[in-house]
Structures are given as C-alpha cells and as structure tokens.
Design a protein that fits this description.
Helices cover 45% and strands 17% of the residues. By secondary structure, it is of the alpha/beta class. About 2% of the residues have low confidence.
C-alpha cells in the first residue's frame, strides 16, 4: 500500500504527535508499505524534499505557539510531485495547515482520507485568546473540529474512549469512529535494552544519591499539563522526607514560572528542571527514576505514561479517562483524585519499595500491548475499510450512470 502521512509536526521537533507519526511511518514500512510524509519546513521560503526518506517539507512560518509553524494551504508547485506518488490512502494528523492540504489533495484526486484526532483543542484556546472570549473561541474550535472530521474524513481514529465520547455525545459525530490507542516503540524502553552505565552517569550528572527517591515528569511545561500540582505537592513531600526528589524533563512557555515557584517554595534543591532531552536519551531518564507522575487532564492518551510502564516505572496519574484504559489502580500503577491521595501514594511507594517491584512487572505487561507493530496493524485495517468503501461508492456510481445511459 502507498500511504501519505500529513502532519504539522515531525522530528526533529519533538512532541506527542511528532513522535507518533514518526513511529507509525517506521512501523508501516517494517510491514512492507511505502510511506510518504508531508510536513512543515523550518524554512519560510523554501520547500524541501528528502527523496530517500520520502519526506516533503512545505515552507512554513512560525505562529508564536511553541515551535509550531503554519504552511501554505495549497502549494501548487508541489502538487505534481505529490500526484506522482500514486497514494492509495491519505492519513492526516492535523486539522490545520498541512491538514487542509491533505483534505484538498484527497478530494481533488479521489483518495480516501483517514484522520486521527490527537489534540483536545478546546483546552488550548487560551494561547490565542489570552483569557478573552473563551466561550466563543471554544465554540469556533468545536465547529472547525466537527467540520474537518465529519465533513471531510472518510474514517476517524481516536486514541481513547474519552475522545470517542466527545465526538459521539457532544459533537454528534455521524461517521465511523475507530478507537485505536497510539502505540510506541516499547522495546527501546525495556530494561534489557538500556545501558546501565548511562543510567548511573545520568544520576551522577543530576546529582542523585543512592538513597534518594526520584519522581519523574516528562512533558511540555505549560498550563494545561498541570505541573504546578506536582510542584506544590512536592513541598509537603519534602517536609515528610527531603530524600524525595522531583525530576522535570521538558520545556515550554511556563518553565521560568515553574522554576520561580519551586524557588519560592524553598524547593530549589529538591526539584530538578532538566529541560529538553534528546529523543534517544529519553529511556535513560525513566530508568533513573523510581516512579512517574502526571496531573494533566488534557491528554488524549498520555504516551509518556506508556513509556514509563514500558520502562517498568509505575505511573501515578490523576483520575482522568485518558489513562483508564492503560493504568489500573493498585495493579500496574496508582490513580489519585487530589493532592492528599497523591502524597499518600508517593509516601507508600517510598516506604515500601517492594510495591514498586510488583507494579513494575504488571506495568511492563500492559505496555507490551501498546507496541508500534500492533498499532500499525490496527491502522491498516482502517485504511482497508476506507479503500473498500471507496470501491463500493465507485461501483454504485457506475451502476447509476449505466442505468441512466440505458445500459
């Protein structure tokens, strides 16, 4: 099958969507498919094409939100190049920019369009409105989401029941919805694939001592990730025992704000802000930690939770539907509703390390079900359904045409 993946974000830019699309490309290619990627270039004036990797980057300009860039909607000079790919199916991973290009190209050349909804945009409108017109902006986002996903996509993929319910109950979505949790390359996080010397070197670099207990957070440092919850709770954890450390890996618009908060709370020596980490180094950070924690309620799935579980690091997650299909409380991790529960769970792990060993084994078992190979196989089934429906529509159109011709 010849497949086109259309996305506004792709490595070297790192986030959940970028990682997911790159992983899907590799997994599909391993199964023998030919995969092309259309994404945005860092160059505002020039398109780029890597023929060997089959990656086309459309010239794009920065929009002031993280490192995101906006491409031209229909770059005419690239259409003939894309047409020569003879794509069987287009899989879009964004509603805007390159996503609009995917929609227009699919319609012009009668190619089935499959779309994955990755981001709860209603939780991100504050970046545009800055607190003004929140209600109306959310309504606009809802309208645009329904239009893109319902009116243009042949098949829709969502990662969790949480997003499925959003589309069915709030958006009244009428087309097929396939719940396919995004997979990851779990094996790169497995303990047997980790260089223990590198883990020890990282601990030394971060200043961790042998008797210290490390809580890890990996993600974007922004309002919607609720990192403030972890920092404020850590004040009480340090009062309980100052051998408990919080390691924060990631960057974002609120990094300085969180660093200042930690300093104001007297936690400068107990919270380590690592900043961004290279993609290939991320597994080492998990293995340098005892548990993983997140208080974010804006995830569509929470890939970092699966990464932690693959590394055998028990996750502690706020009670949110995004995590319920992955984390089972008191089996492979813990779920908390408030700060008090979170603190009690951390102290329980700290006091009884044997619990971590039990949860660790179950966490890895669960993570193994989230492999990139399994994910790609499920996505292929959706592609095949889209192709089948296209053939059925063409067959029906031919029959109707022949009827009116009297044939």
């Amino acid at each position: 099958m010849r497949i086109g993946l259309f996305t506004d974000t792709y490595p070297p830019f790192i986030n959940g969507v970028s990682t997911s699309v790159a992983m899907l490309k590799r997994a599909l290619e391993q199964q023998g498919h030919t995969v092309y990627v259309v994404t945005v270039s860092n160059n505002a004036l020039k398109h780029e094409y890597d023929e060997k990797e089959r990656i086309l980057k459309v010239a794009g300009i920065p929009i002031g939100i993280y490192d995101y860039r906006l491409s031209s909607i229909y770059p005419v000079t690239l259409i003939n190049k894309m047409k020569k790919w003879n794509l069987d199916v287009i899989h879009s991973h964004t509603e805007f920019g390159v996503g609009i290009l995917a929609r227009l190209f699919a319609k012009q050349f009668n190619i089935p369009l499959v779309h994955t909804y990755h981001t709860l945009y209603e939780d991100y409108t504050h970046y545009i409105t800055h607190g003004y017109f929140e209600k109306s902006s959310k309504k606009i986002v809802e309208y645009l989401t329904k239009f893109y996903c319902d009116k243009t996509a042949n098949e829709l993929i969502v990662p969790t029941n949480k997003i499925y319910s959003l589309f069915k109950e709030k958006y009244n979505f009428t087309k097929n919805i396939h719940i396919i949790p995004t997979g990851i390359e779990v094996d790169r996080f497995f303990e047997e694939n980790i260089n223990k010397k590198e883990v020890e070197m990282l601990k030394k670099k971060l200043g961790f001592k042998k008797n210290e207990f490390v809580i890890l957070f990996v993600g974007r440092l922004a309002e919607e990730k609720n990192v403030e919850f972890l920092i404020e709770a850590h004040k009480k954890l340090v009062e309980y025992d100052d051998h408990i450390k919080l390691l924060i890996v990631g960057d974002g618009p609120d990094k300085q704000k969180y660093e200042q908060l930690a300093e104001n709370l007297g936690l400068k020596d107990n919270i380590i802000f690592n900043g961004k980490a290279a993609w290939e180094e991320i597994p080492i950070y998990y293995h340098a930690s005892n548990v993983f924690a997140t208080a974010s309620t804006t995830e569509t799935q929470g890939l970092t939770v699966i990464e932690a579980m693959a590394a055998g690091v028990p996750p502690l997650c706020i009670d949110d539907e995004s995590f319920r299909g992955t984390v089972t409380d008191e089996l492979n991790g813990r779920v908390f509703k408030n700060q008090e529960e979170y603190i009690n769970q951390i102290t329980e792990f700290y006091e009884n390390k044997k619990i971590i060993d039990v949860y660790s084994k179950q966490a890895r078992v669960q993570a193994e079900h989230c492999s990139s190979r399994s994910y790609a196989s499920s996505v292929i089934e959706v592609y095949q359904r889209a192709l089948k429906e296209k053939k059925e529509r063409q067959s029906l159109f031919t029959k109707i045409t022949n009827f009116f011709k009297g044939e």
